[in-house]
Amino acid sequence: MITRSISSTQPPRWQSLLAQGVRDVGELLARLDLDPTQAPGPLDPNSPFPLRVPLGFVARMRRGDWNDPLLRQVLPLNAESAHHPGFVLDPVGDAPSRRPGGLLHKYHGRVLMILTGACAIHCRYCFRRHFPYSEAHAARSRWQEAWDYLRDDTSIEEVILSGGDPLSLPDEKLGELTDALSEIPHIKRLRLHTRLPIVLPERIDDALSSWLENRRFQWVIVVHSNHALELDQTVAEALRKMSRTGAVMLNQAVLLKGVNDTAHAQIALSKRLFEIGVMPYYLHLLDRVAGTAHFEVEQTHARALIGQLAAQLPGYLVPRLAREEPGEPAKQVLAADL
Ligand SMILES: *Cc1c(COP(=O)(O)O)cnc(C)c1O
Ligand code: SF4
């Protein structure tokens, strides 16, 4: 059939949507009916960490609203270049945990693989915004080193595919990756850390679902959504599609001033996640990476917030408030202030 031969020679639709993302601050503001001269603070249209946001995510932003919580996550501000003591290039101590082949090994039994530096969206608060991807990611040419490391350490039961965003890689590469991992007998679980199902739900097409149906592994998918307004119907369908493959679905969020630092926003997020088959996992305190000080929420406020959630939600809908301390054997979970 004609349609079939055309579609088989074309790249998948998600790749063109990925390429069409907005990269120009003026264009983003025009799409949102915002006048740049009315900005609440100076913008930085030429940031070395440039604007990047898929059109579908822009469509979920409220027009004419500088305080839209989705917009705040992507809009480059001059404030990012201000120096703040304690805000550094590598706040979570990734450097000493680097292992050959683009691996990070911090915690017992699980290893994180930095597959790519690419993402569909550039989140201004990203804790890896200064990560040395070009020298430290698992480029295809370094995979053999990674397999050697994983094979030698039989305590490793879980590999976390991360980045950047691992789902920005093409399906063929993902397939090759899991084929190689499936030959290491002590690896039982694969975990995906990804924001793509939230920001570009078209990525979850039939080819991706078949990849996830690989039954050699137990899959855990940890998506990254910070606000209920991110989770529209298209995202809900993408997440349900992933969930139907049998994967355990979790969410991690970052607590961000001006985005989701109210009990109302957090409760709405937990309820919406549950509605679409995803359990809240971590609510991270901001990692103190250079350029992000304006997003920081005080720890006392964060603990009070978790207390409010605990008082209003069933226990399973309260995320763990977590902070990463370099050198510790696990992420630190902070108690709720009740
Ligand atoms: C966060 C992280 C993990 C995962 O930690 P969990 O508590 O199991 O979610 C694993 N490895 C590295 C390097 C990490 O930063
Ligand atoms: S999707 Fe994740 S890795 Fe990519 S910019 Fe956002 S926070 Fe950073």
TrEMBL record:
The keyword Signal does not apply. The modification N6-(pyridoxal phosphate)lysine is found at residue 331. Gene3D superfamilies: Aldolase class I. Keywords: 4Fe-4S, Iron, Iron-sulfur, Isomerase, Metal-binding, Pyridoxal phosphate, S-adenosyl-L-methionine. CDD domains: Radical_SAM. It catalyses: L-lysine = D-beta-lysine. The keyword 4Fe-4S applies. [4Fe-4S] cluster binds at residues 119, 123, 126. Residues 105-328 form the Radical SAM core domain. Belongs to the radical SAM superfamily. KamA family. This is L-lysine 2,3-aminomutase.
